[in-house]
Structure formats: structure tokens, C-alpha cells
Predict the structure.
Amino acid sequence: MSKPKVAFFDFASCEGCQLQVVNLEEAILDVLALVDIVSFREAMKEHSDDYDIAIIEGSIARPIDIDRIKKIREQASILITIGACAHLGGVQRLGNQWDAEANKVEVYERHPGSEITKGDSNPYFAQIKHRAVSEIVKVDAAIPGCPIDSDEFGKVLVALLTGKKLPIPDYPVCVECKKNENICVFETGGFCMGPVARAGCGAPCPTHGGECEACRGYVDHPHTQAHAEVLKKYGLSPNEIMTKRTMYNYRDFEDKGGD
Amino acid sequence: MKIISKQDFDAFINALIQDESLDVEGVKAKGDKFVFGPLDSATELRLDYDVTILPPKKYYLPQYETMMHFDISTGKATAPAMDTKKVIVGVHPYDLIAIQQMDKYFFDTNVDDIYLQKRKNSLLIGVMPAKASEKAFYGDLMKDAGTPELHFDLMITDLGVLYAILPGTPEGAELLQRATSRDAQPQEIEAAKNKRQEAIDRATRGLKVGPKAWHSLLSNNYMSSVWKEMSDQCLACGSCTLVCPTCFCYDVNDEVGLDLNTGVRTRTWDGCLLRDFTKVAPGEIFREDIVERYRHRINRKGKYLPDAMGFVACVGCGRCSSACIPDIADPVNLINKLAEATMDTIPDANVGHVPEKSDLGIVASDSLYIPRTATIRRMMKLTKTETFFEIGLDDGQPLGHVPGQFVEVSIYGVGEAPISVSSPPGGNTFQIIVRNVGDLTNKLHSLSEGDKIGIRGPFGTGFDTEDMKGKNILFIGGGLGIVPMRSLIKYVLNNRADYGKVMILYGCKDPSELLFKDEIAQWENTPGVEMHRTVDTCAEGESWDGQVGVITTIMPMVTFDPLNTIAVVVGPPIMYRFVNRDLLNMGMPEENIIVSLERRMKCGVGKCGHCQINGIYVCKEGPVFNYKDIKDEPEAFQ
């Protein structure tokens, strides 16, 4: 059996998730034994449009992105997204609080230097509401996180190639945080999304003194009401709670009928 | 008892650290909290700690533990290499009690060899608590349940400028010989005793009902509104169970490397508060509501394990309450709240808090988890989703099962699934019928005759064929329930003279799901066998000569003396509710109804905790049960 051909594509993102793939270092050789990478801007100069597996980083931000992702979907037999931008719409999705046209004016027409871009009908400047990839085309596997975890990338690849269900857990980050024997973020004066956030990352943020921001999205059935009570008890105002919740998960807010 | 100066004690610990044959672990500071971890020097050791974030359970049942390394191409698995011998310094008495409970649990019925190996390969140095954490209440528990006989190798009591050290085992005494010490004076022995009492007195928080009466308190309050009131605030984050020294449940996963060939089977802490914990292959979640999971946790501590093991599985460390952000996990608070509703409780004299001293001299007979290799001898597709497999163990031995037992079918890289044996005892092969519902069964369906798989077992209790002798037997099978039942039907027909009238009622959704068509035709024509079959629905034009309607509609077609008949009922939960009700209405005594509840089993040996219905471990105590014994378990027929 010939090896499946893999191509990487980026949309609105920092390309940090692709960097995590490059960060596999020696293990990338094991990956190359499983698949042929035919397009990977961050790691090689060659490019081919003949691929079986498309790996997508980034959110859908412009009308031209919609056409492009649909074409990729037509070509790819398997479409995998990597990272929070593709999975949830990324932090840039917070821009959906405003009208897409207003965002365009803000970015391309109001600031110093915008005399060059002002009034330009360049399709690269056109804006839509930010969307996750799965809101436009069917996604076969979403590797969550900002950025993705290199090991998890390998595990998902193995699962897809061996026909197993994806190894992405449905329990909260607290589980992995407790296993790491961390002092609870709430006890150190912080505010944590861990109790509702999907684990699988190994809780690196609380382990290294940070707070969980739920960059991997929520578990399937988050107890958000109880979590909001906790945040309130620890002194967050309703506005601050909303800010915490929407940083990576504005999609959830929109899905639940928020504007 | 020996006396050692603090300076000499430090020298003793440093000498242990220098000894390369030992891995010395002890209590260290982490921020303003404490953890057990590897010691670099005696100065790191903090014997003045209140409580550690995680209990020393992590040394015996680690957060992530490799159970075996496997190679898919050869179908072979090997046990992981043995760790360096551990000396664990600074274990508080409540954690020692928890380890004794864990010993009892992991040594019960099926000795967990992975656990035993780690347990044997370590020494425990205890210390009397110098202070109690804010949430600790072990004093309350010990006052009610009595002063425990603890299992330790050495026990340290801080006498101010000196340490008193009591050896608890010959190994401990031998280790202590490495230290400069002298015998204790009577007044020092007395002082150590007082310190111990002070430690107990310090950790009290006004628990209103002692642990011996928790069983009765929880039994009286299973439907209390307190559960919902508390669990409404529950995050279902699992923290309370993860930090608990007496929560032993785990999940098992196969991880395959990027070579797609080698990998490890691992176990990792799981917990009954997590939604996934009771998920079964087709996606059904057994304890969907948080309130059920919240209630299960405390019942397991105060009622289920006392029933099964004789101890209350709470040691009063207070870790769960410290870890719970909404502050609803505290057993003291919860027990006192329940007690407000009913003080009407009866202490159970047989329930203790500390099991007898552990016997580490026990020997595990075989590896509990590494499967035997087996070969698929014959495969046959029965329906769209069910396939028949005939399997032979590669060591040539018969499986040695009794009807009603199950095996764990293992495929490296995919995992394991419990599957009931469908053939009668005897012969060098056995048969299973597998529905394609999850990763493992899906993979199994893709295999071919001659392919290798792994088998563990047989496990569980089967049907009591002796007890059934001389009686009429009424088989009532629904859907896949016919699969384990077939083992017994064939056994009974092979030993026809031992049994009275044989009646078989079999129902399934529609004619396409009917299993064993040829055998059923045979049974129908066997003298002395009365067979009726029905389908829930039959599409127009489909060929079907049986009845149409749910299984209860064909029950009146057979006549029998209910007092001299055993009903063997196997099917989906909903079926039991209606069939058992009708059987009872026909005058059948409860103890004449035998059921099989094969649900949610995972490890197969009574350790991982997934199959619990209330306090019953289905894989160990079942899957075959007498209806009378489980009818009062609220979760049995859910």
C-alpha cells in the first residue's frame, strides 16, 4: 500500500501549530515513514495539489477562505484541523462581537498607514464573521489546543491510520492537573477554566504557574453554571466571567444563541 | 522503641539516599503545600507537614502506569521492568490505613500482581502528624472505629529534640540498624503515646455520625434531597476522587507508537464523578446525572466497600474537601447534613476502619492482565452486526469455563472487551458471538481465521448448574441475551437426564436479528424441549413463522410449576423489569429467577471499578445473579 500523501494549509492563524509538528524533531522521521508530506510551507519549499490528507491550521476569516477550504475538502479524503483557530475560530473570533464591515474599517481604513489600503477592493481585505473550519466543511478529526500538543498530533495520526476512535478525552483539565499534583489555581489567587475545559494537553498551563484558558474548548457536558458560581465566589464580576469564558470559546457563546 | 537524635536521623536519611539500591521518597514542600517526591537530601524532608496534595497511593497505583509492553506483529506482551526498591518517608497514619485498605482491595479474589510487586518492593516509614490540616477529621473516625493496628516498617514520633522510632516489621528493624540509636526509656515510650493521642485529638471536626453508622445513614437516605442540593454545585471535575487515598478506580488504554507496531497498555486514574466513567461502547452513559455520580462516591465510601470488604473507605485526610472548589465534597459536612434529616442510625459492629495487617507474603499465581495468546479457528457472519468466532488457546488447554462466564478478548493496540462465552464447557476450543459496536469489536470483525488474539479469563460467576438439577428450566432470552444463555442451553441438553422440562423463549427486534437459526430449528424438534420465538416487529413480506410482539406476550404460552422451575432470564435492562414482574405474578419465588447483567465490565477482575451497580462488582460477583440478591439494588435494572 502506498503511503498517504499529506498537505498542510494555513488560514487565519499564527502558524504555531505547524511549528509544533516541526517540533516533533526526530519523531518526524517516524511520521515520514507513515505518510508522504507533499506540501508544508513551514518545513519545505515543494508544493503539490495531489494529496489524500489535508491538515488545516487557522480560522475562516474572508470570503476567499470559504472557496479555498471547500476546494481542499473536495480533494482530501481525510481533513484534519490543528489548533484552536481551526477548531473554534481562535481568539480572533472575539472580533465577531462587531460587524465584519466595521472590523474591516477599523483595521484597514482608520489607522496610520491605512491611506494605502483605504477603499481598496482587494479580496484579501474583505471580512466575514470568523468561523471554525467545521462550520464550513466536514472535519474528520480536530486536534484542539493553542498550540496543539506534538504528542497528541502523533497519537491522532496513529488512530486515523489504524481506524481507532480519536484519543481525545472528554474529561476536564482538573483531572490532569490533579495527576500532576499541582496546587489548585484558585488557591493561588487565580481563576481557572480547568473545571470545564477539555483535557488531553496534560495541563501544562496550571503546571507552570498559569491559568487554564480552555483553548481546547469545553468538555461535552460542561457544568458551566456551577463553574460560574465558583468564579463569582472567588470574586470575578459577570463581565470578567464573560471575558474568561469567551477568550477561546466565543464559538460556544455564539452557538448558545449569543450574538 | 528506639530513640534517635534529629542529627543522627538526618544522617540516617542521607545514608539511605546515598544507597544506590534504594529510591528514597519523602514529604517535601511545594509552595505552601506538601507533596511526596524523591529526596535529594534529609534537609528537604518536612516531617512537620499537615497533609500532602496527593496521597502515597501514587507509588502503588501511579497516575499513569505501564501494565505491559506489546508488539503487535508478534502478538507478544512483556511485563515492565521492576522499579528500584522504594523507601517512603513520612507517611501519616491515615495514609497507612488507606494503604492497608488498598492492599485488601487489590489482593482480594484476584491478586493484582502489578500492585503486589510494587507493594512488596517498598518500605513505609510512618510519622505521627505534627499538625492537622484544616479539613482533616481522622480523629473523629479513629474515636469511633477504635485505635488501629497499623502496618508500617518504621513509625516516627517527634519528641521535640529527639525522635522515637518504632519498628513494625523485621525489614524496618533491619533498616533502623543503619542508624545510631538507643533503646527508649519508659518515660519516652509514654511521651510517644501521648503524642499519638494528641495527634488524634487535634484532627476532629464534629462529625455527628461515626463511620460504623454511615452504612445505615446512607441506606436510609438514598433518595434524600440533600444529594441534589449539593450536586447542583458540583463541577463533575473528578478532583475529589483523584486526590482520595481510597479511590482505586482506573481506566485502561493501549498506546501505539508511530511505528504502528510497538506500544504499551497503560492504566490511569479514573473516577466515578467523571461522565465518561460509565460510558459503554455504543455510547450509553450509565450515571448520566451528576447527582447519581455524586451520591455514588459517598456510598462507595460508607456503604458499598464496607459491605464488600468490611471497612469504611474514608480515612479522614480531608483531601477531597481541600480539592473541591465549590466545597461540596467534605464528608463531614455531607454526613452531618444527612444526619439532620435522620439521626435514626444503627452502628454496624462488623464494619471497621482499618483492615487487618496486610499479608505481603501472598503470591500472585499468574499475571492478572497479560493475556494468553489464542487463534481464531473459525469465523462466521451471523447477522449484519454479529459474527461467530471459534477460538483455541495456543497452549492447547481448554478454556475451563462454566456456562455464564465471560472472557476478556484482547487485541494489542486496540484494547480489550468482555465477551461472554457462548459454547458449553469442554473441548479444546470455545465460541463467542460478537456484536460490532466499538473499537475492539470492530477490529475483531476485520480479522480472519488463523489470526491471533489475546484471551484472559474465564471470569465471573456462571450459572449454578448443580442447583438447577432436577428442576424445570425456563430460558427467557432477549436480543444478545441468547448468547451467554446458549452455553447453558447446550449444557442442559447435553445433560438432559439431570433436568426436568426445558422451555426456551427467545425474542429479538426483527427476523434479521435472529441468531442461531439452525440450532433453534434443532431445539424446536428436540423431544422434551418447548421452544417459542417472537420478534418485536416484522416488516411486511419478511419470512417469519414465529410470534410477533415483545417477549412477555409469549410467556403465557408455556405452563410450568413455578415452585419447581428455574427461570434463566438474560436480555436488556428493560426486559428484566417486565419479564421478572410477570414471573413473580405467575407465582415464581424470587430466588428461582436467575439473571445475567453483563454491562460496563472493563478489567474483568474486580479492580477497575467500571462495572459497579451500586456496590456490586458485576465482573467479579456476577455477571450471573440470583434475582433475590440484587432486586433491591436501585441501579441493577436501570
